[in-house]
Amino acid sequence: MKSDRLLSILLLLQTRGRVPARELAGRLEVSVRTVYRDIEALSASGVPVYAERGRHGGIELLAGFRTDVTGLTADESRALFVLGAQCTHAALGLDAAFGSALRKVMAALPAPHRPAAEATSRRILVDATRWRGGPRHSADLAALQDAVFADRRLRLRYRHGGQREPRTYTVDPYGLVAKAGVWYLVADRRGRPQLFRADRVRSARLLDDPVRRRPGVELADAWEVLRREVEERPGGLEVVVRVHRDRLDMFRRLNAAQLAEPAEDEAEDDGDGAGDWVTARLHYGSVREARQLLPFADRVEVLSPPQVRDELAAAAASVTALYRSPAGEPGEMAAKGPALGSALPD
């Protein structure tokens, strides 16, 4: 473990230059005192490393010192070759570069590790896209990448879900995130973090102004805040439903974020059909969000509260009216608005 840590320190210093001891300790998950002991061990082994104290001090290698040692263990070698989510690299225009990089890494690996790494590349495949995701508007990531790496502000024409006309925003980008096959731009807008789906960006133009990020905030920090807002969005409305067992697995998968607790058996099967149903409790932010249950048709029934039952009944009546009318002539209720709503974030 210590030898791996010493090598990690050496490679970090070689890549980053001067690094504060506290930052090294945080990255390696050890104490600052342990970092200084490791620095002494590196120095004793002939590595020209030194520490400078003070506000702008840190640990640094002597200028010009380099090492060609990869230091990869067998597991680290295998881990590199599980990066094969090719759709992600292709979207960034890095597909060919990724393949070339892996070939170079393979050539640099210690000979005993190469068979395992090669087997991993053939036996493990990462596909980040969802099943039956359907066609999406293609995302042009070129301008977004330019803004991210040039550290400049960005003028977006962006269409929100459910809106026809795009809006114009000036944002300060932190970076790009690929989540389940969907690319997002993470940026500050008026000093607050916001997510923008790349496939909803209608145009993106770099401005001459330098980016104005909040001090000390990195991409990972901004993404964590936004991710929590989406996944931990408070649901003030509790909905009690019963789910037919033949749709229970799908119900659990599609409503995992809303489920308040594991679905429980309503009753044992005593021949009257009661045992075919399971009771579950979900949390939603609004009555309309509960329309996500409509695709389950008669395999999910809302037991409470009454306003959610009324909402789903009205939506179902709207669909019924639509299909009872001649094709192309929506019924009276259907003409008032769409039957299905979406609670997914923009």
UniProtKB/TrEMBL annotation:
Task: Give me the ranges of the annotated region Disordered.
Answer: 325-346
Q: Which PANTHER family match?
A: PROTEIN PAFC, PTHR34580
Q: Which organism is it from?
A: Streptomyces mangrovisoli
Q: Which GO terms describe its molecular function?
A: DNA binding; DNA-binding transcription factor activity
Question: Know the name of this protein?
Answer: DNA-binding transcriptional regulator
Pfam families, per database record: HTH_11, WCX, WYL
Quote the InterPro entries the UniProt record gives.
CBASS_pafABC_assoc_protein, DeoR_HTH, HTH_11, PafC-like, WCX_dom, WH-like_DNA-bd_sf, WH_DNA-bd_sf, WYL_dom
Q: Where is the HTH deoR-type domain?
A: 2-61
Q: Which UniProt keywords apply?
A: DNA-binding, Transcription, Transcription regulation
